Amino acid sequence: MTRPLLLASLLLAAGAAQASGAPHTHDGFYLRLQGGFGGTSASNDDITLKGGSGGLNVEIGGALTRNFILYGKLFGTGTPDPDVKIGGITFETNNDLNGNFGAVGIGVTYYFMPVNLYISGAISATSLSLTQNGDKLGDPGNGGGLHLGIGKEWWVGDQWGLGIGAELAGTHVKGDNDTKDWNAGSFLLLFSATFN
Question: In 10 A of CB 92, how many CB atoms?
Answer without folding.
Answer: 9
